[in-house]
């Protein structure tokens, strides 16, 4: 009986641990243009995987494995990218991750017709008070009208936040053809030490079964 109890508990723990999304790629749930907008295109196109040559399952697909496959973003604009107002050299966008998340990396597909010259990231738990995560990132300057473009991966220390603000400067980049800031796509990596996800109902039932078996074993030993 003791061995059976251990099996139940071990299975429950293993199943619960499998719910963890450490290292997974995930996307924002919404975004707000703080300045430089409304611009052209939809800001939603920068996190809905539109334009990507390879899709992923948010919160499930492994970030590093996905990026190793070199997913490219289309150079086509309509419905796939976002541009700030023309002649804007600075723009700011806040991404809402939907809940408090631990993250440690950003994947940015830097749009090729304008792009971002310098990018600074800020994090917040409430959407009001922001703290600097990393300053003056320099995304790749892609030649306009060229081939589909890949992602830059920027890593940083483990940050707990629900909101990530992108402050974009020095737009457009030197090789660019349109005077604005622009984004192709963004995605984030769940930090490796993210707490295990809350068990789903099936996992809770499995835990209860294991605990019940343990209680039965104790009663039998007493008798």
Please report the distance between the alpha carbons of the first and last residues: 14 Å
Please write the CATH class name of the largest domain.
Mainly Beta
Helix content: 10-25%
Gyration radius, to the nearest Å? 22 Å
Number of strands: 9
Class computed from helices, strands and strand pairing: alpha+beta
Instruction: Summarize the helix and strand pattern as letters.
Output: HEEHEEEEEEEH
The CATH homology group name of the largest domain: Galactose-binding domain-like
**CATH fold name of the largest domain:** Jelly Rolls
Count of discrete structural domains: 2
Shape: globular
Count of individual helical segments = 3
Give the gist of this structure.
By secondary structure, the protein is an alpha+beta fold. The chain has helices at 2-17, 63-68, 201-222, and strands at residues 25-26, 30-35, 82-83, 91-109, 118-124, 131-137, 152-169, 182-183, 185-190. Helix 1 packs antiparallel against helix 3 (201-222).
Description:
This protein is of the alpha+beta class and 223 residues long. Helix 1 runs antiparallel to helix 3. The chain folds into 2 domains: 1-20 and 196-223; 21-195, Galactose-binding domain-like (Jelly Rolls, Sandwich), CATH 2.60.120. Strands 1, 2, 4, 5, 6, 7 and 9 form a 7-stranded antiparallel sheet that branches. It has helices at 2-17, 63-68, 201-222; strands at 25-26, 30-35, 82-83, 91-109, 118-124, 131-137, 152-169, 182-183, 185-190. Mean pLDDT is 84; it is low at 1-20 and 194-209.
Question: Which descriptors would you attach to this protein?
Answer:
2 domains; two-stranded antiparallel sheet; Jelly Rolls; disordered N terminus; 223 residues; 3 helices
């Amino acid at each position: 009986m003791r061995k059976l109890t251990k099996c139940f508990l071990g299975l429950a723990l293993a199943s619960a641990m499998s719910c963890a999304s450490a290292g997974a790629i995930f996307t924002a749930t919404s975004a707000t243009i703080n300045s430089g907008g409304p611009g052209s295109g939809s800001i939603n196109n920068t996190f809905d995987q539109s334009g990507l040559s390879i899709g992923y399952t948010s919160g499930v697909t492994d970030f590093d494995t996905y990026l190793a496959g070199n997913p490219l973003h289309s150079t086509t604009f309509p419905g796939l990218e976002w541009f700030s107002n023309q002649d804007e050299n600075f723009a700011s966008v806040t991404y809402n991750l939907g809940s408090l998340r631990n993250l440690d990396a950003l994947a940015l597909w830097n749009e090729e017709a304008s792009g971002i010259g310098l990018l600074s990231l800020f994090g917040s738990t409430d959407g009001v008070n922001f703290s600097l995560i990393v300053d003056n990132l320099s995304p790749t300057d892609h030649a306009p009208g060229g081939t589909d473009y890949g992602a830059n991966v920027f890593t940083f220390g483990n940050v707990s936040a629900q909101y990530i603000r992108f402050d974009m400067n020095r737009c457009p980049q030197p090789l660019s053809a349109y005077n604005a800031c622009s984004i192709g796509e963004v995605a984030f990596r769940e930090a490796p030490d993210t707490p295990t996800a809350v068990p789903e109902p099936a996992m809770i039932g499995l835990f209860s079964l294991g605990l019940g078996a343990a209680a039965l074993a104790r009663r039998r030993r007493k008798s």
